[in-house]
Write a structure and sequence with these properties.
Distance between the termini of chain A: 33 Å
Number of helices of chain A: 21
Structural class of chain B: alpha/beta
Number of helices of chain B: 19
Strand order of the largest sheet of chain A: 1-2-19-24-20
Radius of gyration of chain A: 26 Å
Largest sheet of chain B: 8 strands, mixed
CATH architecture of the largest domain in chain A: 3-Layer(bba) Sandwich
Oligomer: heterotrimer
Number of strands of chain A: 24
CATH superfamily of the largest domain in chain A: FAD/NAD(P)-binding domain
Chains: A alpha/beta, B alpha/beta, C alpha/beta
Distance between the termini of chain B: 32 Å
Largest sheet of chain A: 5 strands, antiparallel
Chain lengths: 596, 591, 338
């Protein structure tokens, strides 16, 4: 942290008068610090305050933990089950020498599972503005935008084409992964703030966009991606060939199509896996997912792959779909062997066909789940080659004034957490455009703190296994049996203990340090360094240390926060109490709080 | 061959708890009924970075030396332990930390240096200790836990040792250590299916002698106290410091005093002063300090004042190798100082003798009114052995002053020329026995007298006195002796243990070899030694010095040359080195 | 590249042959072989005989004790590679040691396959691939008198024979999915069935294991889709899968095995894979294949070593000895050796 440079560089550093030991900073070096040091929060598209909510679970304040989630991601119970978990990939506990990442997602669910019933949810409400916004689509992006705009003081109406709100959450995710009552509850919490929801109305069909845009001060399209991509091979129209998304949606609506015994799924995303697992529940005996490349490049979580395999789903790699074979009804799929090539610009390996390597695999049905895209609609404005409205990803604006886009509709298929973040950002933008005021901003909050009761031995607690329904036969007899049963309270407590609480920052005050090296002797790894000098980057954050073993050249004893695992041993052993602890978090600050 | 004869080493960096771990192995195995000989080596610096190694030889029969090959290595620091790899036996067991706190390179890795037949037991010492006790400080105990589990040693032996060691530091500290030990034990017990439960199966449970684990230094301190030591004066020096440390704790409660002097000259001065009054007093030092003392030691010779001086030898000359062992002060002990200053020099060969020789030294000093020098060395001082409980009889500790009879009152000759050279000695304050004690050459009365006749006479008297001590001194002891030998090995001090083992091995190989242990360095038993030499075709004298100092002293007794084996490696002479020397002579060589 | 440092992961036949070849052709090079087991290279297919007590455990070694030492090849046994960094060309060992290399041959071989649905019972089932496994079998067999074999690879057959010889009651659940060194058809199924019956094996017609529960040290409750019963030991014999999990996220392409070109080179320069862990596309059979078997492995090990030193030798597969395993073609000289 470079508090001094924050003042020099001209960025806002506000001292809160009520709490003199709290500092809010917008200095880029502090955001840089967060990226390295609190990677989970920085990795979350919605900036969920992971260490804080995990600490709440340790303190058994489940309701508060839930609330810390809800204020930024709105669907903790839902996300606690189906989030893509970008945070866990960055969790410092998962560094190779440190073990496995904390189950951040499962803990989110624990907060939801164990929160007190009837707890009122406090959304930070602003006074009414007297303007209205129409949101098209009640998926995660639409609901998130609706929530935020409503809180800021706008009148909100949501138009939903289907019978129930929730979008992909409701229709695109099987019930065995996301029970509907959990989702319904969280949606209702948003709606009951005073949002008008009109279901069964397809914007542009049941009501013209022009009409909507006249009636409301602004319109936000958040209608997602519901158009299934096709393979573009022959035989795709045969009976027994299903679009993955359509299949999942049908099942969500209660249908039970007969897929036969032998099912082939083509695709590599969550939908492909959902289809494969749903197929087992529909009575299929032999379900195989065919992917173009190798398993390692699958875009689903490892848990998902493992669960699918345990249920009996097989995965076959290096197979390119060549054609679907059959007369009238599908009989087999012809694949071509592929090989992996160079790494493409998106970081994935290119896949090349191997000529002459065709092979046939028999199937009673084929499910094609190779992605989806936004459907064209009749809203006015600039469109892409497929007739889909285009917009600016930073301003959320279309080419038509007061018509905004967000979520998957704007960006193409993404994750739920990205959609929520996108919806919230669009809301902030709309509010700003319509009122000329900024309502909230993200800042780095720094606060004096003390070491916690966290013990170094907790670093060795094994990752808590998510209990799931066993034996497998009990799972696949019903679409609605939720496979994951949720961590128990004891498990959640143990798992919460695993979190390093990276939001605590340790720093040695060199003016007090007596160079006794006790901290180094007691350090769990090479996190405290004897240095002759440090190098700062352009933003003023520490970039590298010049370490020295020559005692004559040592100018400071420095904690390398990127190596520090926040065990607190150094603070405990320091004989002169020269190591300070600061709690550093990304928080969303209300800029107009005084108007409440 | 003994049923159990296993050498265990613990190696780590200063601060890793290496020495403590080695000590606990010794204690535990000793309480399990085994014979144990332990020796530590550690860095010279006061507090610093360096290698610590403990060696524990554990056997079902008595042990006199260290072994060359290590069977079990417990590594608390792999980079340091690499140096031990060449000493590992075939198929040695190696315990190491499988989760070091940072990545290591090949040249820091212990296992990278090991032979493929080594049996590796990777145990995450630090992680387990931290997990169990909240801190990695107990990782040395975690290592011991792993060692105990794999080798099938009753964990209660260790738990008892740990409890004894840490009890006084409070329940919390004790818990941490017990938990750390158990963590290693449980981990290894579950993790390694390959176990060596029969490794230490050499003893029936109740056959074990009840023995106590003592270091040479401790035995010296205890010997001094048992002998009625009243005053200790000294100046710290490795490897003698622990004697002073022990006495500082133990002596005051017995009415004695320990005084740290400004240097070694002051120390010996104070000892002479105290002894002059009749108090039993001593000092302990090492080569460099001993050199400073020599002038005043000869004062004790001249003025015929008792004094006990312990010289714990270390690598020299000068500051030399403070933490390495050597036997190179023999010349200085026997001959050091101005003039013809004969004094008594004795040298124990094991921990029990460290005790009994110290006890003996006070009576020798008293009876013969002379400085007595006890020569030990680093290896002897610092090694631990489990020995039968030590005690002395009244006859061994009682006052043996030869006081003048009342008839001499008023006519007292302090330095009377008697047949055995011992002049009855009066203590200050004894009425009617006023006399002059002086470092100047003096007459029988004590008056300075430089006349040629007097100096000749008094020199003869003093030397006669020292020679007369021979009958009070320990005779050389013959091992495996009979009427004729191809090789006779003569040895002194800590080296004797290796000689004994080498001799035994040579005899097992069918060679006709005997050993002679010499503990009275000066005066020495010429006739006994000559008799032994006469029945041996070859005489070999291995010593931990370059000059062959014992050989120089007694070599002339042999009809031909004596063969010397002079090693100054800083480490005890390995039995194997002596054995191969012996084999050279039996395979054709002769005098 | 004669003074370069070669690292070989694995100590089976492919590794052995690769090390020997590298030493012959590059006398000045440094060669290090990492074996995760503590025993030196042995012939795993002899283990059933060891379990049955018909063969002394000392007789299964592939080469004399000093073989590597005499050839100045550093052999590091009991030391497991857990990661390979192909940016820095380093292998990382379980005990956190980092070893750099110029050239790498991955020859980790196969490990027993446990189908994912049965993974939850992994602790209850026994396999037989290593000398350590053999030791456990011997230990457990002393205390039980019945064994359930699930699967049906060659090891399971020789072990079944061995178990019957020492008087154990054997149950068998044939799993059509499991690795079988012949195309598995009804005729073969019947034949095996009959042959096992003849020997006194209780061949179960069950198809699915629903649950395995360890009741005590020497008793396991078995629940299948048609019967429940108790046995002393459950053995899992579903063939082998390449032991390459430690290479996940290393950047190597891994399908069933490590994907290599016909010269056994991976996508990284000077990094080769050989033996049971390599998966290669073969234009003759027009599919990927994995080699299994002792002699195959030796051949591939030699080829990998020669190619490392600049050769351009293609690995050959003769189509008649290839069959399909889980969608991947498998070459088995191993079967022929039996």
């Amino acid at each position: 942290m470079t508090n001094a440079s924050a003042v020099d560089s001209g960025f806002t550093t506000i001292h809160d008068r009520a709490h003199p030991k709290v500092i809010f900073s917008t200095d880029p070096s502090d955001f840089d610090y967060m990226k390295v040091n609190v990677p989970c929060q920085s990795a979350c598209p919605a900036f969920t305050n992971v260490p804080a909510y995990i600490r709440d679970i340790y303190e058994k304040r489940y309701g508060h933990s839930y609330e810390l989630n809800r204020i930024v991601n709105l669907f903790p119970g839902t996300l606690g089950r189906i989030c893509s978990r970008p945070c866990e990939k960055k969790c410092r506990h998962g560094e190779p020498e440190l073990g496995q990442p904390v189950s951040i997602c499962h803990l989110k669910r624990a907060a939801s599972d164990f929160k007190e019933l009837g707890r009122p949810f406090l959304s930070q409400m602003f006074s009414a503005i007297g303007k209205s916004v129409c949101i098209v689509g009640s998926g995660p992006a639409g609901l998130a935008a609706a929530h935020d705009l409503n809180a800021i003081g706008f009148n909100i109406t949501i138009l939903e084409a289907f019978d129930e709100p929730g979008g992909m959450l409701r229709y695109g995710i099987p019930e065995f992964r996301l029970p509907r009552d959990v989702l319904k509850n969280e949606i209702e919490t948003i709606l009951k703030m005073g949002i008008t929801l009109k279901t069964g109305i397809r914007a542009g069909v049941d009501i013209a966009f022009e009409e909507i845009m006249t009636e409301y001060d602004a319109t936000l399209i958040a209608s997602g991606c519901y158009s299934s991509n096709r393979l573009g091979v022959s035989g795709e129209n045969l009976r027994g060939v299903y679009s993955g998304l359509d299949l999942v949606m049908d099942i969500s609506r209660g249908k039970t199509p007969d897929l036969g015994k032998k099912v082939i799924v083509i695709g590599a995303g969550f939908t492909a896996f959902d289809c494969a697992r749903s197929a087992l529940r529909l009575g299929a005996e032999d379900v195989t997912i065919f992917i173009r490349g190798v398993e390692e490049e699958l875009r689903v979580t490892e848990d998902e792959i493992l669960d699918a395999k345990r249920e009996g789903v097989k995965i076959r790699g290096l197979s390119l779909t060549q054609r679907i074979v059959g007369e009238d009804h599908v009989g087999a799929v012809e694949f071509l062997r592929s090989r992996t090539g160079e790494t493409g610009p998106n970081g994935r390996r290119r896949i090349h066909a191997i000529e002459g390597s065709e092979f046939l695999v028999e199937a009673d049905s084929v499910i094609v789940a190779v992605g989806q895209s936004a459907e064209p609609n009749s809203a006015p404005g600039a469109k892409d080659g497929n007739g889909v409205l285009i917009g600016d990803r930073n301003t959320f604006k279309s080419s038509t004034s007061n018509l905004y886009l967000t979520g998957d509709f704007l960006t193409g298929p993404s994750t739920v957490i990205e959609s929520v973040a996108s919806g919230r950002k669009a809301a902030e933008r709309i509010a700003q455009d319509l009122t000329g005021q900024k309502f909230r901003e993200w800042v780095v909050k720094m606060q004096e703190a003390v070491i916690t009761d966290r013990q170094r031995s907790w670093d060795f607690i094994p990752k808590q296994e998510m209990p799931s329904v066993m034996p497998i036969s009990n799972r696949i007899m019903d679409q609605k049996v939720e496979v994951e049963q949720g961590l128990t309270q004891d498990q959640a407590f143990e798992e919460a203990k695993r979190c390093y609480l990276c939001y605590l920052h340790y720093e040695i005050d060199i003016s007090k340090c007596i160079f006794c090296r006790y901290c180094i002797d007691n350090a769990p790894r090479d996190c405290i360094k004897l240095v002759s000098s440090v190098t700062l980057n352009d933003n003023g954050a520490i970039e590298s240390f010049w370490e020295t073993v020559d005692w004559q050249k040592v100018n400071a004893v420095v904690i390398d926060n990127s190596r520090c695992i926040r065990c607190g041993e150094c603070v405990r052993v320091c004989p002169v109490d020269c190591i300070s602890v600061t709690r550093v978090e990304l928080v969303e600050r209300n800029l107009l709080a005084g108007r409440l | 061959m003994p049923k159990v004869d296993i050498t265990v080493e613990v190696c780590g960096m200063a601060g890793d708890g290496t020495i403590a771990a080695g000590g606990m192995i010794n204690e535990a195995m000793s309480s399990g009924g085994y014979y144990v000989l332990g020796f530590d080596s550690y860095p010279a610096e006061i507090r610093g970075f360096g290698r610590c190694v403990t060696h524990s030889r554990i056997g079902s029969e008595e042990i006199s030396a260290l072994q060359e090959k290590t069977h079990i290595l417990i590594s608390l620091n792999d980079e340091q332990s690499r140096s031990r790899a060449p000493y590992l036996d075939n198929g040695a067991m190696v315990f190491f930390d499988s989760r070091p706190s940072a990545y290591i390179t090949e040249d820091q890795s212990l296992v990278a240096t090991l032979r493929p037949d080594s049996r590796l037991f990777g145990i995450p010492f630090s992680d387990l200790a931290t997990k169990a006790a909240g801190s990695a400080r107990g990782r040395n105990l975690t290592a011991l836990g792993g060692f105990a589990a794999v080798c099938g040693i009753d964990p209660e032996l260790f738990r008892h040792v740990i409890t004894t060691k840490f009890e006084s530091k409070g329940q919390k500290v004790l818990d941490i250590n017990i938990k750390s030990f158990d963590a290693g034990y449980d981990y290894a017990h579950q993790r390694f299916s390959e176990r060596f439960d029969r490794l230490f199966d050499g003893l029936e449970p109740d056959q074990g002698p009840k023995r106590v684990m003592l270091s040479g230094n401790y035995a010296i301190g205890k010997g001094a106290i048992d002998a009625g030591l009243q005053l200790y004066f000294g100046y710290p020096i490795t490897p003698a410091t622990p004697i002073m440390e022990y006495l500082a704790k133990a002596l005051p409660s017995r009415g004695g005093r320990v005084v740290q002097m400004e240097d070694e000259i002051a120390s010996i001065g104070a000892v002479l002063g105290a002894s002059y009054t009749g108090a039993r007093s001593m000092t302990a030092t090492s080569g460099p300090g001993f050199a400073l003392m020599t002038e005043l030691i000869t004062h004790g010779v001249m003025a015929e004042i008792p004094a006990v001086i312990l010289d714990a030898q270390r690598g020299g000359p000068s500051t030399g190798l403070p933490t390495k062992t050597e036997q190179s002060d023999l010349h200085a002990a026997v001959f050091g100082g101005p003039g013809d200053s004969a004094r008594i020099v004795i040298a124990p060969t094991n921990v029990s003798e460290c005790y009994s020789f110290t006890v003996k030294s006070f009576q020798l000093a008293e009876k013969f009114q002379t400085p007595v020098i006890v020569l030990t060395d680093f290896f002897l001082d610092n090694r631990v052995e489990n020995v039968p409980p030590l005690h002395s009889s009244e006859s061994e500790t009682r006052n043996v002053n030869v006081f003048p009879n009342d008839a001499q009152q008023g006519y007292y000759k302090r330095y009377s020329d008697t047949p055995d050279g011992i002049s009855p000695r009066a203590l200050p304050g004894m009425k009617g026995f006023n006399h002059v004690a002086t470092g100047l050459e003096h007459s029988e009365k004590g008056a300075p007298d430089y006349s040629p006749e007097n100096h000749q006479k008094m020199s003869e008297k003093r030397h006669r006195k020292i020679q007369s001590a021979l009958s009070d001194l320990f005779e050389p002891e013959e091992f495996y002796g009979s009427s004729h030998h191809d090789v006779g090995v003569i040895s002194w001090g800590s080296t004797f243990g290796s000689v004994l083992e080498a001799t035994r091995q040579a005899r097992q190989m069918g060679h006709n070899v005997a050993a002679l242990k010499i503990t009275s360095i000066y005066p020495y038993h010429k006739d006994t030694i000559r008799a032994f030499m006469l029945k041996c075709n070859n005489i070999l004298i291995p010593e931990l010095n370059f000059e062959g100092q014992l050989a120089n002293l007694i070599g002339h007794l042999n009809t031909g040359d004596v063969h010397r084996l002079n090693l100054v490696t800083g480490s005890p002479i390995p039995p194997g080195a002596i054995l191969s020397e012996i084999v050279k002579f039996v395979d054709g060589g002769s005098k | 590249m004669s003074t370069e440092r070669f690292v070989i992961i694995g100590n089976g036949p492919a590794a052995n042959e690769a090390a020997t070849t590298l030493r012959q052709r590059a006398p000045q090079s440094g060669i290090t072989v990492f074996g995760k087991e503590t025993t030196r290279s042995y012939k795993p297919h002899l283990l059933p005989d060891v379990v049955a007590g018909r063969l002394d455990a000392e007789k299964i070694f592939a080469s004399p004790e000093d073989y590597y030492n005499e050839r100045d090849i550093q052999l590091r046994l009991g030391q497991k590679v857990v990661q390979v960094d192909f940016n820095k060309y380093q292998v990382i060992l379980e005990h956190r040691e980092v070893v750099s290399f110029d050239g790498l041959i991955i020859a980790t071989g196969g490990k027993p396959r446990i189908p994912e649905p049965l993974e939850v019972f992994e602790d209850v089932m026994m396999t037989l691939k290593t000398t350590e496994d053999a030791r456990l079998w011997i230990d457990r067999l002393a205390r039980v008198d019945s064994v359930l074999m699930i699967g049906g690879d060659l090891t399971s057959l020789s072990l079944t024979r061995a178990l019957i010889n020492i008087g154990k009651k054997v149950f068998f659940i044939i799993d059509a999915e499991s690795f079988w060194p012949l195309p598995f058809n009804e005729r073969l199924h019947q034949e095996i069935h009959a042959r096992l019956r003849e020997k006194g094996v209780d061949v179960s017609s069950s198809r699915k294991i629903k649950r395995l529960t360890q009741l005590s040290d020497c008793s396991i409750q078995v629940e299948t889709d048609c019967a429940d019963f108790e046995v002393g030991i459950v053995g899992a014999f579903f063939g082998l899968v390449p032991d390459v999990r430690f290479l996940a996220r290393s950047g190597l392409d891994i399908d069933r095995g490590i994907l290599v070109d016909e010269n056994l080179q991976t996508r990284f320069r000077n990094v080769f894979a050989a033996g049971d862990c390599a998966q290669v596309y073969n234009p003759v059979i027009r599919d990927y294949w994995v080699s299994i078997g002792y002699d195959n492995a030796r051949t591939l090990g030699r080829i990998a070593a020669l190619n490392m030193l600049g050769g351009m030798i293609a690995a050959q597969a003769s189509p008649e000895s290839i069959f399909s395993l889980n969608g991947v073609q498998v070459n088995t000289s191993w079967w022929m050796e039996f």
